[in-house]
Fold Beta-amylase.
Amino acid sequence: MALTLRSTTSFLSPVDPTSKLLHKPGVDDALPCCAAVPAAPHAAAPGRRLRLVRAAAPAPAAGRAPAEAAELLHAGGAVHEHGRARGGVPVYVMLPLDTVGPGGQLSRQRAVAASLMALRGAGVEGVMVDVWWGVVEREGPGRYDWEAYAELVRMVERAGLRLQAVMSFHQCGGNVGDTCNIPLPPWVLEEMSSNPDIVYTDRSGRRNPEYISLGCDTLPVLKGRTPIQVYTDYMRSFRERFRDYLGNVIAEIQVGMGPCGELRYPSYPEANGTWRFPGIGEFQCYDKYMRASLEAAAVAAGHEEWGRGGPHDAGEYKQMPEETGFFRHDGTWSTEYGQFFLEWYSGMLLEHGDRVLAAAEAVFGGTGATLSAKVAGIHWHYGTRSHAAELTAGYYNTRHRDGYAPIARMLAKRGAVLNFTCMEMKDEQQPQHASCSPEQLVRQVKAAASAAGVELAGENALERYDEAAFSQVVSTARGAGLAAFTYLRMNKTLFDGDNWREFVSFVRAMADGGTRPALPRCDTGHSDLYVGFLDAAKERKAPEAEGAATATAAAW
Protein backbone atom coordinates (compact mmCIF):
# COMPACT_ATOMS: atom_id res chain seq x y z
CA MET A 1 0.00 0.00 0.00
CA ALA A 2 1.38 3.38 -0.92
CA LEU A 3 1.95 5.71 1.99
CA THR A 4 0.86 9.29 1.35
CA LEU A 5 1.63 12.27 3.56
CA ARG A 6 -0.61 15.35 3.61
CA SER A 7 1.36 18.36 4.74
CA THR A 8 0.11 21.66 6.15
CA THR A 9 3.58 22.87 7.05
CA SER A 10 6.23 24.33 4.81
CA PHE A 11 9.32 22.16 4.43
CA LEU A 12 11.37 25.10 3.17
CA SER A 13 15.03 25.50 3.91
CA PRO A 14 16.90 28.75 3.50
CA VAL A 15 18.65 29.11 0.17
CA ASP A 16 22.39 29.72 0.09
CA PRO A 17 22.79 32.85 -2.10
CA THR A 18 26.58 32.91 -2.00
CA SER A 19 27.67 30.41 -4.61
CA LYS A 20 29.18 31.91 -7.76
CA LEU A 21 28.46 28.86 -9.88
CA LEU A 22 24.97 29.89 -10.97
CA HIS A 23 22.78 27.12 -12.26
CA LYS A 24 20.95 27.24 -15.58
CA PRO A 25 17.83 25.09 -15.29
CA GLY A 26 17.52 22.28 -17.76
CA VAL A 27 14.52 20.25 -18.78
CA ASP A 28 15.25 17.60 -16.17
CA ASP A 29 15.58 20.07 -13.29
CA ALA A 30 12.99 20.73 -10.64
CA LEU A 31 11.12 23.90 -11.55
CA PRO A 32 10.16 26.43 -8.89
CA CYS A 33 6.38 26.05 -9.18
CA CYS A 34 4.09 23.16 -8.37
CA ALA A 35 2.46 22.84 -11.75
CA ALA A 36 3.09 21.38 -15.15
CA VAL A 37 4.89 23.86 -17.37
CA PRO A 38 3.77 24.07 -20.99
CA ALA A 39 6.26 24.02 -23.79
CA ALA A 40 7.77 27.42 -24.42
CA PRO A 41 7.52 29.08 -27.83
CA HIS A 42 10.51 29.12 -30.10
CA ALA A 43 13.47 30.90 -28.57
CA ALA A 44 14.24 34.43 -29.68
CA ALA A 45 17.08 35.15 -32.02
CA PRO A 46 20.50 34.70 -30.41
CA GLY A 47 21.03 38.44 -30.19
CA ARG A 48 17.97 38.76 -27.96
CA ARG A 49 18.70 35.83 -25.67
CA LEU A 50 17.28 36.48 -22.20
CA ARG A 51 19.01 35.65 -18.93
CA LEU A 52 17.20 32.75 -17.26
CA VAL A 53 15.74 33.29 -13.83
CA ARG A 54 14.42 30.77 -11.39
CA ALA A 55 10.85 32.00 -11.64
CA ALA A 56 10.71 31.30 -15.36
CA ALA A 57 10.38 27.99 -17.12
CA PRO A 58 13.34 27.06 -19.34
CA ALA A 59 12.86 27.09 -23.09
CA PRO A 60 13.52 23.71 -24.69
CA ALA A 61 16.99 23.32 -26.14
CA ALA A 62 17.34 23.04 -29.89
CA GLY A 63 16.26 19.66 -31.20
CA ARG A 64 14.28 18.75 -28.10
CA ALA A 65 10.62 17.82 -28.53
CA PRO A 66 8.29 20.52 -27.11
CA ALA A 67 6.41 17.92 -25.10
CA GLU A 68 9.53 17.26 -23.07
CA ALA A 69 9.43 20.83 -21.77
CA ALA A 70 6.26 20.13 -19.77
CA GLU A 71 6.88 18.36 -16.50
CA LEU A 72 5.58 18.23 -12.96
CA LEU A 73 7.82 19.71 -10.27
CA HIS A 74 7.69 16.74 -7.93
CA ALA A 75 9.20 14.50 -10.60
CA GLY A 76 12.35 16.58 -10.66
CA GLY A 77 13.99 15.61 -7.40
CA ALA A 78 16.20 17.92 -5.43
CA VAL A 79 15.88 21.64 -5.87
CA HIS A 80 18.97 23.22 -7.47
CA GLU A 81 20.41 26.26 -5.77
CA HIS A 82 22.94 28.27 -7.76
CA GLY A 83 24.55 25.33 -9.53
CA ARG A 84 24.31 22.57 -6.97
CA ALA A 85 21.62 20.22 -5.79
CA ARG A 86 20.51 21.05 -2.27
CA GLY A 87 23.31 19.73 -0.07
CA GLY A 88 25.20 18.38 -3.08
CA VAL A 89 27.94 19.19 -5.56
CA PRO A 90 27.48 19.58 -9.35
CA VAL A 91 29.78 17.36 -11.43
CA TYR A 92 31.43 18.40 -14.69
CA VAL A 93 33.51 16.17 -16.97
CA MET A 94 36.65 17.18 -18.85
CA LEU A 95 36.49 16.62 -22.58
CA PRO A 96 39.46 15.02 -24.40
CA LEU A 97 42.46 17.33 -24.80
CA ASP A 98 42.16 17.18 -28.59
CA THR A 99 38.41 17.80 -28.76
CA VAL A 100 39.46 20.70 -30.96
CA GLY A 101 42.64 19.59 -32.73
CA PRO A 102 45.76 21.51 -33.81
CA GLY A 103 44.23 22.42 -37.18
CA GLY A 104 41.10 23.90 -35.63
CA GLN A 105 38.84 20.91 -36.39
CA LEU A 106 36.24 19.47 -34.02
CA SER A 107 37.29 15.85 -33.45
CA ARG A 108 35.04 12.78 -33.11
CA GLN A 109 31.81 14.76 -33.42
CA ARG A 110 29.54 11.71 -33.39
CA ALA A 111 31.20 10.26 -30.29
CA VAL A 112 31.20 13.62 -28.51
CA ALA A 113 27.51 14.21 -29.25
CA ALA A 114 26.57 10.74 -27.97
CA SER A 115 28.76 11.21 -24.91
CA LEU A 116 27.16 14.53 -24.03
CA MET A 117 23.70 12.97 -24.08
CA ALA A 118 24.87 10.04 -21.94
CA LEU A 119 26.40 12.43 -19.41
CA ARG A 120 23.19 14.43 -19.27
CA GLY A 121 21.24 11.25 -18.62
CA ALA A 122 23.60 10.40 -15.76
CA GLY A 123 22.90 13.73 -14.07
CA VAL A 124 26.13 15.50 -14.95
CA GLU A 125 25.96 19.30 -14.82
CA GLY A 126 28.28 20.03 -17.73
CA VAL A 127 31.66 19.59 -19.37
CA MET A 128 35.03 21.36 -19.45
CA VAL A 129 37.09 22.08 -22.56
CA ASP A 130 40.54 23.56 -23.19
CA VAL A 131 40.28 26.56 -25.50
CA TRP A 132 43.79 26.31 -26.91
CA TRP A 133 45.67 29.53 -27.68
CA GLY A 134 47.84 27.50 -30.05
CA VAL A 135 44.76 26.51 -32.05
CA VAL A 136 42.66 29.65 -32.06
CA GLU A 137 45.39 32.20 -32.86
CA ARG A 138 47.53 29.89 -34.99
CA GLU A 139 47.22 31.91 -38.21
CA GLY A 140 48.84 35.04 -36.82
CA PRO A 141 48.57 37.77 -34.17
CA GLY A 142 44.97 38.86 -33.69
CA ARG A 143 43.59 36.31 -36.17
CA TYR A 144 41.18 34.16 -34.19
CA ASP A 145 39.41 31.01 -35.37
CA TRP A 146 36.54 30.15 -33.01
CA GLU A 147 34.44 28.05 -35.40
CA ALA A 148 35.11 24.59 -33.95
CA TYR A 149 34.48 25.90 -30.45
CA ALA A 150 31.27 27.58 -31.61
CA GLU A 151 29.99 24.23 -32.89
CA LEU A 152 30.98 22.58 -29.60
CA VAL A 153 29.10 25.21 -27.59
CA ARG A 154 26.00 24.54 -29.70
CA MET A 155 26.37 20.79 -29.10
CA VAL A 156 26.63 21.38 -25.35
CA GLU A 157 23.54 23.58 -25.44
CA ARG A 158 21.55 21.00 -27.40
CA ALA A 159 22.48 18.36 -24.83
CA GLY A 160 21.14 20.57 -22.01
CA LEU A 161 24.55 20.84 -20.37
CA ARG A 162 26.78 23.71 -19.28
CA LEU A 163 30.37 24.49 -20.21
CA GLN A 164 33.52 25.37 -18.30
CA ALA A 165 35.87 27.04 -20.83
CA VAL A 166 39.58 27.03 -20.02
CA MET A 167 41.65 29.87 -21.47
CA SER A 168 44.61 27.57 -22.20
CA PHE A 169 47.64 29.77 -22.79
CA HIS A 170 50.00 26.81 -22.38
CA GLN A 171 51.10 24.03 -24.70
CA CYS A 172 49.69 20.51 -24.52
CA GLY A 173 52.34 17.79 -24.41
CA GLY A 174 55.08 16.82 -22.01
CA ASN A 175 53.13 16.46 -18.76
CA VAL A 176 51.16 13.80 -16.90
CA GLY A 177 48.08 12.79 -18.91
CA ASP A 178 48.98 14.71 -22.06
CA THR A 179 47.82 12.52 -24.96
CA CYS A 180 48.41 14.93 -27.82
CA ASN A 181 50.71 17.73 -28.87
CA ILE A 182 49.35 21.26 -29.26
CA PRO A 183 52.16 23.84 -29.14
CA LEU A 184 51.84 27.58 -28.67
CA PRO A 185 50.95 29.57 -31.82
CA PRO A 186 53.59 29.33 -34.59
CA TRP A 187 54.22 33.09 -34.51
CA VAL A 188 54.93 32.83 -30.76
CA LEU A 189 57.36 29.98 -31.39
CA GLU A 190 59.13 32.24 -33.89
CA GLU A 191 59.52 34.86 -31.18
CA MET A 192 60.92 32.18 -28.87
CA SER A 193 63.49 31.24 -31.48
CA SER A 194 64.68 34.82 -31.83
CA ASN A 195 64.51 35.54 -28.09
CA PRO A 196 64.77 32.31 -26.05
CA ASP A 197 64.59 34.26 -22.79
CA ILE A 198 60.83 34.72 -23.09
CA VAL A 199 60.36 31.14 -21.81
CA TYR A 200 61.18 29.67 -18.41
CA THR A 201 64.76 28.51 -17.92
CA ASP A 202 66.40 26.34 -15.26
CA ARG A 203 69.86 26.57 -13.69
CA SER A 204 71.51 24.46 -16.41
CA GLY A 205 70.04 26.67 -19.16
CA ARG A 206 67.33 24.23 -20.26
CA ARG A 207 64.45 26.15 -21.86
CA ASN A 208 60.81 25.15 -21.37
CA PRO A 209 58.40 26.15 -24.20
CA GLU A 210 55.20 25.28 -22.30
CA TYR A 211 54.33 28.82 -21.28
CA ILE A 212 55.68 32.36 -21.61
CA SER A 213 57.89 33.37 -18.68
CA LEU A 214 56.09 35.62 -16.22
CA GLY A 215 59.28 37.68 -16.09
CA CYS A 216 58.24 39.42 -19.30
CA ASP A 217 54.52 39.85 -18.50
CA THR A 218 54.61 43.60 -19.07
CA LEU A 219 57.23 43.79 -21.82
CA PRO A 220 56.33 44.02 -25.57
CA VAL A 221 58.07 40.75 -26.51
CA LEU A 222 55.28 39.29 -28.68
CA LYS A 223 55.41 41.32 -31.90
CA GLY A 224 54.89 44.61 -30.11
CA ARG A 225 52.42 43.39 -27.50
CA THR A 226 53.04 42.26 -23.94
CA PRO A 227 51.93 38.74 -22.93
CA ILE A 228 49.24 40.29 -20.72
CA GLN A 229 47.96 42.31 -23.68
CA VAL A 230 47.94 39.19 -25.85
CA TYR A 231 45.97 37.22 -23.23
CA THR A 232 43.55 40.14 -22.81
CA ASP A 233 42.93 40.48 -26.55
CA TYR A 234 42.33 36.72 -26.79
CA MET A 235 39.81 36.74 -23.94
CA ARG A 236 38.09 39.83 -25.33
CA SER A 237 37.68 38.13 -28.72
CA PHE A 238 36.23 35.06 -26.96
CA ARG A 239 33.78 37.27 -25.10
CA GLU A 240 32.59 38.95 -28.28
CA ARG A 241 32.22 35.66 -30.16
CA PHE A 242 30.31 33.93 -27.36
CA ARG A 243 28.55 36.89 -25.76
CA ASP A 244 25.10 35.27 -26.09
CA TYR A 245 26.23 32.12 -24.25
CA LEU A 246 28.20 33.61 -21.36
CA GLY A 247 26.46 33.25 -18.04
CA ASN A 248 24.06 30.59 -19.28
CA VAL A 249 25.55 27.84 -21.44
CA ILE A 250 29.12 28.95 -20.67
CA ALA A 251 28.97 28.93 -16.90
CA GLU A 252 32.64 29.35 -16.05
CA ILE A 253 35.86 30.77 -17.44
CA GLN A 254 38.92 29.10 -15.98
CA VAL A 255 41.92 31.31 -16.64
CA GLY A 256 45.16 29.51 -17.46
CA MET A 257 48.19 31.01 -15.72
CA GLY A 258 50.98 28.50 -16.23
CA PRO A 259 51.87 24.98 -17.38
CA CYS A 260 48.85 22.65 -17.48
CA GLY A 261 46.75 25.78 -17.01
CA GLU A 262 47.85 25.93 -13.35
CA LEU A 263 49.20 28.87 -11.39
CA ARG A 264 52.75 27.55 -10.97
CA TYR A 265 56.20 27.36 -12.51
CA PRO A 266 57.05 24.38 -14.79
CA SER A 267 59.27 22.88 -12.11
CA TYR A 268 58.54 19.20 -12.80
CA PRO A 269 58.36 18.65 -16.60
CA GLU A 270 58.08 15.02 -17.68
CA ALA A 271 59.14 15.64 -21.28
CA ASN A 272 62.26 13.71 -22.28
CA GLY A 273 62.55 12.22 -18.81
CA THR A 274 63.61 15.54 -17.27
CA TRP A 275 61.70 14.89 -14.05
CA ARG A 276 60.41 11.75 -12.40
CA PHE A 277 58.12 11.35 -9.39
CA PRO A 278 58.83 12.07 -6.55
CA GLY A 279 61.66 14.39 -7.52
CA ILE A 280 61.91 17.85 -5.95
CA GLY A 281 61.99 19.68 -9.30
CA GLU A 282 64.03 22.80 -10.03
CA PHE A 283 63.60 26.56 -9.71
CA GLN A 284 62.70 28.29 -13.00
CA CYS A 285 64.26 31.73 -12.61
CA TYR A 286 67.17 31.87 -15.02
CA ASP A 287 65.82 33.67 -18.09
CA LYS A 288 67.19 37.20 -18.34
CA TYR A 289 63.92 38.81 -17.29
CA MET A 290 63.61 36.79 -14.10
CA ARG A 291 67.29 37.36 -13.33
CA ALA A 292 66.89 41.12 -13.73
CA SER A 293 63.96 41.08 -11.32
CA LEU A 294 65.94 39.02 -8.80
CA GLU A 295 68.90 41.38 -9.03
CA ALA A 296 66.68 44.39 -8.39
CA ALA A 297 65.02 42.70 -5.41
CA ALA A 298 68.43 41.80 -3.93
CA VAL A 299 69.66 45.37 -4.24
CA ALA A 300 66.47 46.62 -2.59
CA ALA A 301 67.05 44.15 0.26
CA GLY A 302 70.58 45.44 0.76
CA HIS A 303 72.21 42.18 -0.37
CA GLU A 304 73.37 42.64 -3.93
CA GLU A 305 75.15 39.27 -3.78
CA TRP A 306 71.80 37.48 -3.41
CA GLY A 307 70.80 38.54 -6.90
CA ARG A 308 73.48 36.65 -8.81
CA GLY A 309 71.22 33.64 -9.44
CA GLY A 310 69.01 31.13 -7.71
CA PRO A 311 70.20 28.85 -4.89
CA HIS A 312 73.38 26.99 -5.84
CA ASP A 313 72.60 24.05 -3.54
CA ALA A 314 69.00 23.29 -4.62
CA GLY A 315 69.88 20.04 -6.40
CA GLU A 316 68.36 18.59 -9.57
CA TYR A 317 64.92 17.56 -10.78
CA LYS A 318 64.96 13.92 -9.68
CA GLN A 319 66.69 14.32 -6.33
CA MET A 320 65.18 13.98 -2.85
CA PRO A 321 65.18 16.85 -0.31
CA GLU A 322 67.82 15.36 1.99
CA GLU A 323 70.21 15.01 -0.94
CA THR A 324 70.45 18.80 -1.24
CA GLY A 325 71.85 21.55 0.91
CA PHE A 326 68.88 23.82 0.29
CA PHE A 327 65.93 21.50 1.05
CA ARG A 328 67.30 19.21 3.75
CA HIS A 329 65.86 19.32 7.28
CA ASP A 330 67.68 22.48 8.39
CA GLY A 331 68.82 23.57 4.95
CA THR A 332 69.35 26.92 3.31
CA TRP A 333 65.59 27.34 2.81
CA SER A 334 65.27 28.31 6.48
CA THR A 335 68.07 30.93 6.43
CA GLU A 336 67.65 34.67 5.86
CA TYR A 337 68.81 34.23 2.26
CA GLY A 338 66.44 31.32 1.70
CA GLN A 339 63.51 33.31 3.01
CA PHE A 340 64.42 36.27 0.78
CA PHE A 341 64.64 34.11 -2.33
CA LEU A 342 61.45 32.15 -1.68
CA GLU A 343 59.47 35.31 -0.93
CA TRP A 344 60.66 36.84 -4.20
CA TYR A 345 60.06 33.66 -6.25
CA SER A 346 56.56 33.02 -4.88
CA GLY A 347 55.75 36.74 -4.93
CA MET A 348 56.50 36.92 -8.65
CA LEU A 349 54.03 34.08 -9.23
CA LEU A 350 51.35 35.81 -7.17
CA GLU A 351 51.83 39.06 -9.08
CA HIS A 352 51.53 37.17 -12.36
CA GLY A 353 48.30 35.52 -11.24
CA ASP A 354 46.88 38.85 -10.16
CA ARG A 355 47.77 40.50 -13.48
CA VAL A 356 46.16 37.78 -15.57
CA LEU A 357 43.06 37.59 -13.38
CA ALA A 358 42.71 41.37 -13.38
CA ALA A 359 42.63 41.22 -17.17
CA ALA A 360 40.06 38.40 -17.09
CA GLU A 361 37.94 40.28 -14.56
CA ALA A 362 37.92 43.36 -16.80
CA VAL A 363 36.89 41.27 -19.82
CA PHE A 364 34.30 38.94 -18.30
CA GLY A 365 32.93 41.09 -15.50
CA GLY A 366 29.18 41.52 -15.86
CA THR A 367 28.75 38.59 -18.26
CA GLY A 368 27.42 36.24 -15.58
CA ALA A 369 30.24 33.74 -16.10
CA THR A 370 32.22 32.66 -13.04
CA LEU A 371 35.99 33.14 -13.03
CA SER A 372 38.22 30.41 -11.64
CA ALA A 373 41.91 29.57 -11.38
CA LYS A 374 43.60 26.22 -10.94
CA VAL A 375 46.21 25.48 -8.28
CA ALA A 376 48.28 22.30 -8.49
CA GLY A 377 47.99 19.59 -5.83
CA ILE A 378 51.71 19.02 -5.18
CA HIS A 379 51.44 16.47 -2.41
CA TRP A 380 54.86 14.79 -2.50
CA HIS A 381 57.34 15.84 0.21
CA TYR A 382 54.44 17.53 1.99
CA GLY A 383 55.44 15.60 5.11
CA THR A 384 58.91 17.17 5.23
CA ARG A 385 59.84 20.47 6.82
CA SER A 386 60.75 22.26 3.59
CA HIS A 387 57.99 20.98 1.24
CA ALA A 388 60.61 21.06 -1.53
CA ALA A 389 58.36 20.21 -4.51
CA GLU A 390 55.93 22.98 -3.60
CA LEU A 391 58.75 25.50 -3.24
CA THR A 392 60.19 24.89 -6.71
CA ALA A 393 56.66 25.21 -8.16
CA GLY A 394 56.30 28.64 -6.56
CA TYR A 395 54.19 27.82 -3.49
CA TYR A 396 56.07 29.12 -0.43
CA ASN A 397 54.53 26.54 1.84
CA THR A 398 56.65 24.99 4.60
CA ARG A 399 56.16 23.40 8.00
CA HIS A 400 56.03 26.91 9.50
CA ARG A 401 54.49 28.98 6.70
CA ASP A 402 51.12 28.82 4.93
CA GLY A 403 51.78 29.25 1.21
CA TYR A 404 48.14 28.90 0.11
CA ALA A 405 46.64 31.73 2.16
CA PRO A 406 48.22 34.44 -0.08
CA ILE A 407 46.97 32.63 -3.20
CA ALA A 408 43.45 32.42 -1.78
CA ARG A 409 43.48 36.11 -0.86
CA MET A 410 44.61 37.03 -4.37
CA LEU A 411 41.75 35.00 -5.87
CA ALA A 412 39.30 36.60 -3.44
CA LYS A 413 40.44 40.02 -4.62
CA ARG A 414 39.45 39.06 -8.18
CA GLY A 415 36.28 37.16 -7.28
CA ALA A 416 37.64 33.86 -8.62
CA VAL A 417 36.95 30.30 -7.49
CA LEU A 418 39.97 28.28 -6.33
CA ASN A 419 40.09 25.02 -8.29
CA PHE A 420 42.32 22.41 -6.62
CA THR A 421 43.46 18.97 -7.74
CA CYS A 422 44.22 15.58 -6.09
CA MET A 423 40.77 15.30 -4.52
CA GLU A 424 40.70 11.53 -5.18
CA MET A 425 43.92 10.68 -3.34
CA LYS A 426 44.37 9.13 0.09
CA ASP A 427 47.55 9.34 2.17
CA GLU A 428 47.67 5.58 2.71
CA GLN A 429 47.83 4.93 -1.05
CA GLN A 430 51.04 6.91 -1.54
CA PRO A 431 54.64 5.56 -1.35
CA GLN A 432 56.16 6.16 2.06
CA HIS A 433 59.52 7.33 0.76
CA ALA A 434 57.83 10.28 -1.00
CA SER A 435 56.39 11.74 2.25
CA CYS A 436 53.07 12.40 0.50
CA SER A 437 49.99 13.72 2.20
CA PRO A 438 47.29 14.74 -0.28
CA GLU A 439 44.58 14.62 2.38
CA GLN A 440 46.38 17.05 4.69
CA LEU A 441 47.16 19.26 1.71
CA VAL A 442 43.48 19.43 0.71
CA ARG A 443 42.53 20.29 4.28
CA GLN A 444 45.08 23.10 4.32
CA VAL A 445 43.84 24.54 1.03
CA LYS A 446 40.24 24.27 2.23
CA ALA A 447 41.13 26.25 5.35
CA ALA A 448 42.94 28.90 3.29
CA ALA A 449 39.96 29.27 0.94
CA SER A 450 37.51 29.48 3.84
CA ALA A 451 39.56 32.15 5.62
CA ALA A 452 39.78 34.23 2.44
CA GLY A 453 36.08 33.82 1.61
CA VAL A 454 36.84 32.02 -1.66
CA GLU A 455 34.77 29.18 -3.06
CA LEU A 456 36.66 25.91 -3.51
CA ALA A 457 36.17 23.57 -6.48
CA GLY A 458 38.03 20.35 -7.20
CA GLU A 459 39.40 17.89 -9.73
CA ASN A 460 40.98 14.47 -9.65
CA ALA A 461 44.68 14.58 -10.55
CA LEU A 462 44.84 11.20 -12.29
CA GLU A 463 42.34 9.13 -14.28
CA ARG A 464 40.51 6.86 -11.85
CA TYR A 465 37.43 4.69 -12.37
CA ASP A 466 37.36 2.68 -9.13
CA GLU A 467 34.90 2.93 -6.28
CA ALA A 468 37.65 3.79 -3.78
CA ALA A 469 38.63 6.92 -5.69
CA PHE A 470 35.03 8.02 -6.17
CA SER A 471 34.29 7.49 -2.47
CA GLN A 472 37.28 9.60 -1.51
CA VAL A 473 36.08 12.45 -3.74
CA VAL A 474 32.59 12.26 -2.20
CA SER A 475 34.08 12.33 1.28
CA THR A 476 36.40 15.20 0.43
CA ALA A 477 33.61 17.15 -1.26
CA ARG A 478 31.38 16.90 1.79
CA GLY A 479 34.17 17.93 4.15
CA ALA A 480 35.41 20.78 1.97
CA GLY A 481 32.04 22.11 0.83
CA LEU A 482 33.03 22.10 -2.83
CA ALA A 483 31.26 24.47 -5.20
CA ALA A 484 31.76 22.01 -8.08
CA PHE A 485 33.84 19.01 -9.08
CA THR A 486 35.33 18.37 -12.53
CA TYR A 487 36.08 14.76 -13.38
CA LEU A 488 39.10 13.81 -15.48
CA ARG A 489 38.25 12.68 -18.17
CA MET A 490 35.70 11.78 -20.86
CA ASN A 491 36.92 8.93 -23.09
CA LYS A 492 35.89 5.48 -24.25
CA THR A 493 37.10 3.89 -21.01
CA LEU A 494 34.66 5.96 -18.95
CA PHE A 495 31.67 4.44 -20.77
CA ASP A 496 32.81 0.84 -20.39
CA GLY A 497 30.55 -1.37 -18.23
CA ASP A 498 31.60 -1.25 -14.58
CA ASN A 499 33.40 2.08 -15.01
CA TRP A 500 30.21 3.77 -16.14
CA ARG A 501 28.12 2.23 -13.37
CA GLU A 502 30.63 3.44 -10.77
CA PHE A 503 30.62 6.89 -12.32
CA VAL A 504 26.81 7.19 -12.38
CA SER A 505 26.66 6.16 -8.73
CA PHE A 506 29.33 8.75 -7.96
CA VAL A 507 27.37 11.55 -9.69
CA ARG A 508 24.28 10.64 -7.67
CA ALA A 509 26.24 10.57 -4.44
CA MET A 510 27.66 14.02 -5.19
CA ALA A 511 24.20 15.38 -6.01
CA ASP A 512 22.65 13.93 -2.87
CA GLY A 513 25.40 15.20 -0.63
CA GLY A 514 24.57 12.45 1.83
CA THR A 515 21.11 13.87 2.50
CA ARG A 516 17.58 13.20 1.31
CA PRO A 517 16.41 15.36 -1.64
CA ALA A 518 14.90 18.67 -0.55
CA LEU A 519 11.26 19.51 -1.08
CA PRO A 520 10.38 22.35 -3.48
CA ARG A 521 10.48 25.80 -1.94
CA CYS A 522 6.90 26.58 -3.02
CA ASP A 523 5.51 23.48 -1.30
CA THR A 524 3.83 25.45 1.48
CA GLY A 525 0.98 23.14 2.25
CA HIS A 526 -1.46 20.34 1.37
CA SER A 527 1.00 18.44 -0.84
CA ASP A 528 0.56 14.76 -1.58
CA LEU A 529 4.10 13.34 -1.48
CA TYR A 530 4.67 9.69 -2.24
CA VAL A 531 7.47 8.48 0.02
CA GLY A 532 10.19 6.93 -2.10
CA PHE A 533 9.04 8.56 -5.33
CA LEU A 534 12.32 10.39 -5.88
CA ASP A 535 14.40 7.25 -5.33
CA ALA A 536 12.14 5.35 -7.68
CA ALA A 537 12.60 8.03 -10.33
CA LYS A 538 16.35 7.61 -10.05
CA GLU A 539 16.08 3.88 -10.46
CA ARG A 540 13.95 4.35 -13.58
CA LYS A 541 16.70 6.50 -15.13
CA ALA A 542 19.49 3.99 -14.39
CA PRO A 543 18.77 1.57 -17.28
CA GLU A 544 18.40 4.53 -19.64
CA ALA A 545 21.79 5.91 -18.63
CA GLU A 546 23.45 2.51 -18.96
CA GLY A 547 21.93 1.95 -22.40
CA ALA A 548 23.14 5.36 -23.52
CA ALA A 549 26.62 4.54 -22.24
CA THR A 550 26.73 1.32 -24.26
CA ALA A 551 25.82 3.19 -27.44
CA THR A 552 28.32 5.91 -26.59
CA ALA A 553 31.20 3.48 -26.09
CA ALA A 554 30.46 2.04 -29.53
CA ALA A 555 30.61 5.55 -31.04
CA TRP A 556 34.18 5.95 -29.82
Q: What stands out?
A: DSSP finds 13 helices and 14 strands in the chain. The first strand starts at residue 4 and ends at 6. The first helix runs from residue 109 to 122. Residues 89-276+349-510 form a domain with the TIM Barrel fold (CATH 3.20.20.80).
